[in-house]
Design goal:
With 96 residues, the chain is mainly α. The chain contains 6 helices and no strands. This is Putative microplusin-like antibacteral peptide.
């Protein structure tokens, strides 16, 4: 899911960064998506019984790596994935 969703470039995966970096990126993503995408992320957060988006990304990253994309499709529609990818790209540029 977020392995692919979170790929702003081919070499980056939000699942391969430290929890601190992931937290900063997730916080940044939250501020860089529109209200509709934010609402969809909140719905997924509730479905996964998470307190915050950090938890959502953590849970999806903990899934078997071969099923990230499958889980991504389960939790996120294509427009949401596109919006999150764009926000992550912006956030990565701002953090470098």
């Amino acid at each position: 899911a977020l392995l692919c969703v979170a790929r702003a470039d081919q070499g980056f995966s939000i699942c391969n960064v430290t929890s601190e970096v992931r937290h900063n990126l997730v916080t940044c993503v939250r501020t860089n998506v529109n209200e509709e995408t934010s609402q969809k992320l909140t719905e997924v957060k509730e479905r996964l019984h998470c307190e915050d988006l950090d938890c959502v990304f953590q849970k999806i990253c903990e899934l078997n790596s071969e099923t990230h994309q499958q889980h991504s499709n389960t939790f996120f529609s294509e427009p949401v994935k596109v919006a999150v990818r764009a926000a992550l790209a912006t956030c990565q540029q701002n953090h470098h």
